[in-house]
């Protein structure tokens, strides 16, 4: 009896030990699988961190839903005014296409509307644009990259131009004067998202950022002006 008992106890211990070994093997492999599973998680954390710059792109809004008077809103703040700078020239030709074939730089088509503060489109509003070329130089003797136009019956404008270059102290910008018929003339500037120098330009205003999209037809920008009636 005692021997039998001892024998069965030994057998039982062996069985327990074996099952422990057997189960411990999957545990190890599971934990190594877990390690492998955590690895992608860690790398996806890295991806999350990679997305972080788009957070720092908070001054780089490209969402068209942020356009003034967009998505059916019934009122909007007036477009902020900006300094005219030293390079305005009166008497620009009436032209909506400032881009010329062979011009250096990236061509861009900018469209948008002129609204009143209660989001009524302004027909026949004046827009007078002027800007530096892709190398950061203004044409001060002629009217290259300078032109005025008027909104159509729906308050819409379209400007075809190039993305301006940088010049000392300034980030990329396009100057514009906007005026509703018989309204107050406002002078302002448009800015481009994702430009490093936006952060160091004291004139930069996040509310004047173009909404930019790269399409199969090229670079397109959008901005809606809100002017005093
Ligand atoms: Fe300028």
On the 0 to 100 scale, the average pLDDT is 81
CATH topology of the largest domain: Protocatechuate 3,4-Dioxygenase, subunit A
- List the uncertain runs: 10-58
Structural class by sheet pairing and helices: alpha+beta
Q: Please give the CATH architecture of the largest domain.
A: Sandwich
**How many DSSP-defined strands?**
9
The CATH C-level name of the largest domain is Mainly Beta
Q: H/E order of the elements? A: HEEEEEEEEE
- Largest beta-sheet details: 5 strands, mixed
Which ligands does the model contain, each kind named once? fe (iii) ion
CATH homologous superfamily designation of the largest domain: Aromatic compound dioxygenase
The proportion of residues forming helix, as a percent range, comes to 10-25%
Q: Report Rg.
A: 32 Å
Query: What is the overall silhouette?
Result: globular
The span between the termini is 109 Å
**Total helical segments:** 1
Q: Number of folding domains?
A: 2
Can you walk me through this structure?
With 229 residues, the chain is of the alpha+beta class. The chain has two domains: 2-57; 61-226, Aromatic compound dioxygenase (Protocatechuate 3,4-Dioxygenase, subunit A, Sandwich). The chain is 24% helix and 23% strand. The chain contains one helix and nine strands. Strands 1, 4, 7, 8 and 9 form a five-stranded mixed sheet that branches. A four-stranded antiparallel sheet has the order 3-2-5-6, with no helix packed on it. A hairpin with a 6-residue loop joins strand 5 and strand 6. The radius of gyration is 32 Å and the shape is globular. It binds fe (iii) ion. Fe (iii) ion binds at residues 85, 87, 170, 173, 175.
């Amino acid at each position: 009896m005692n021997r039998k008992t001892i024998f069965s106890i030994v057998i039982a211990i062996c069985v327990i030990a074996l099952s422990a070994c057997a189960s411990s093997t999957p545990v190890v492999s599971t934990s190594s699988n877990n390690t492998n599973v955590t690895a992608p998680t860690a790398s996806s954390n890295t991806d999350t961190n990679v997305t972080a710059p788009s957070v720092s792109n908070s001054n780089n809004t490209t969402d068209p839903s942020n356009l003034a008077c967009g998505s059916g809103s019934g009122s909007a703040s007036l477009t902020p005014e900006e300094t005219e700078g030293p390079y305005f020239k009166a008497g620009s030709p009436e032209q909506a296409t400032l881009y010329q074939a062979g011009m250096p730089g990236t061509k861009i088509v900018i469209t948008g509307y002129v609204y009143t503060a209660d989001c009524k489109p302004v027909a026949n509003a004046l827009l007078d644009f002027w800007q530096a070329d892709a190398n950061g130089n203004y044409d001060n003797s002629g009217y290259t990259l300078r032109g005025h136009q008027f909104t159509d019956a729906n308050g819409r404008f379209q400007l075809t131009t190039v993305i301006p270059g940088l010049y000392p102290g300034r980030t990329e910008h396009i100057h514009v004067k906007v005026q509703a018929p018989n309204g107050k003339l406002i002078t302002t500037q448009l800015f481009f998202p994702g430009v490093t120098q936006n952060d160091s330009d004291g004139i930069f205003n996040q509310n004047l950022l173009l909404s930019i999209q790269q399409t199969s037809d090229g670079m397109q920008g959008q901005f809606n002006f809100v002017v005093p009636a």
